[in-house]
Amino acid sequence: MAVFARLISSRFMRSVLRTAVPLVVVLVAVMVVGAVMAPDGRGATYRLLVNFLITVVIVVALQMFTGNSGIVSWGHAAFVGIGAYSTAWFSVPMVIKEDIFPGLPAWMMGAEWGLVPCLLVSTAIGALAAAVVGLAICRMKETAMAMSTLGLLVIAHGIYSNWEGWTRGTEGVYALPTNTTIYIACGFACLAVLLAVMFKYSRVGLRLQASREDPLSAESTGVSVVRARYFAWVASAAMSALAGSLWAQFNLAFGPAQFYYAQVFAILSMLVIGGLATVSGALVGAGITTVIFEVLRGVENEGNLFGIEVPQISGLAQMILALITLLILIFRPNGLLAWWELDGWIVKARDRFWKGGRKLAPDAGEKGGE
Amino acid sequence: MPAEQGQGPAAVVQSSETAADGTLSAREVVKHFRGVHALDGVSLTLQPGEIVGLIGPNGSGKTTLLNVLSGIYPPTSGRVWCRGRDVTTRKPHVIAHLGVGRTFQNIRLFSHLTVRQNVEVGSVSGRKVEGVDHQADVDRLLDRFSLSGSAEAQALSLPYGAQRRVEIARALAGRPLFLLLDEPAAGMNEAESDQLLETIMGVRKDFGCGVLIVDHDLRLIMRLCERIHVLAEGVTLATGTPQEVRADRQVIDVFLGDALKDDV
Fold this sequence. Notes:
The structure holds 2 protein chains of 2 kinds. By secondary structure, chain A is mostly helical. Chain A is built from 17 helices and 2 strands. Chain A has a domain at 7-256. Chain A has a two-stranded antiparallel sheet with strand order 1-2. In chain B, 41% of the residues lie in helices and 22% in strands. Chain B has a 6-stranded mixed sheet, sandwiched between helices. In chain B, strands 2-1-4-5 form a 4-stranded antiparallel sheet, with helices on one face.
């Protein structure tokens, strides 16, 4: 008990709770809206909110690696795919599996697992795959590393598209059971946020951030940059695979095209818009991008923007998202939240609000560290 | 990879001698950059608890020697020993774990991390010592270097002088036995340089580490160091006490010249 009490009162836990609590509140609010608006678990709004919560897991997973290491990964969609395909192997009913996955060994053919075992096995396979490729990737220099993650994406896509016996190639997979509800999606989104915040404030996370700022002086300070990157790479890939499994058990049918450039671009845009350096940025970016996409999809499909007729252009959502990402990169290159988590912004806003009313303490100017 | 040099039995004897002591030393270090001979056979030993000055004109190889000692460059030939271990080809973080801390000529902080986090990285990544209370250590160092007030500010938001202090605090947080300072007095006025002298004296007294300091501020170096090592064009020109170095004809001719007559 004493150990537990000390942990709670430590600087680490205080930082974790201060940052994670506002984010969890936002996620739970999203869940409540969904549960109230669609108590039967159906309809477009419900689908949108559940997919948003799963997207949060994907973006937060990417933030763990890319945000702390400063190395852009183009390959995380491959791990989302690993999670989705692994889930299909262990959950699709046997009768269908014999038809769509003729390559599976007998013991896997019979598996019709539920939510939790599927999540576990997907996460494990994702972590294993990352642990193997990470041995090579994490030893490279920063730019080479980013390039090789792109290679990883292309290789994974090649496998998903051509390994007929296990993936059904480009025809895609179907008949997964619906196991992900809004409560489960929200639970895992909260867990992902909590883990990412804990990682950021942990020793490994701190070392990794130091290497992002200056790899050479981090090494000279005693940081094994390769080890820090490897740890984050595996952890973040495992979380991506978990998200892939949740996603597959909600969307039920998918193909290799669902884990490729368009998705990578969308995920990265979310992170860039919100801000790479913070977990809050991942959440805010995912929220803003989801809303923009939703509004623009309406325009694309129905030629209707808030009741005004506009011409239908296919691919409009992608173009606008690219434009917004570009503007953010030019005018606010560190993203909307830049270097401060939501709790930091709340403190800033409070200080500004009080400024008119009472005099600030002399040292208050240093607090924000502009 | 440094080329192995066939130096015969003499070299072996020297190595086993080096292996026994607790020093940081460069042995006949050569470093070539595409034909530029930055270092051409320099030997230097730093004992714990002593303050050694490394001086020489621009381009004489001072920073290169610091980079070889801290593992940033592998030498073209020659060896680097740290506390009885051959660390010639080891990575910088391994050398840091053995107790070598350093600062950089053009301050290299973790700019977007807070001052506290900068020092914390040093504490949790440096030389391993049983039973260290990292938080308490970090607090003490912040206090010692007058950084407590700006502990939560981003490092890049601090004025130049304070950033220099953060860099020294970060290096010390790793519990180094050897501290390498690359031009810590650059850009400082006389009063600040006097303060730095006090700081380094205090560091040696309280932490007991050996300090190797590169600087052009001869007023500082002459007052601070017990021993001075003079480099010129990649070779050792002279080495000895400040008095000896000051009296050395070659040193006066090549490097010190009028500066000595005016300043000291």
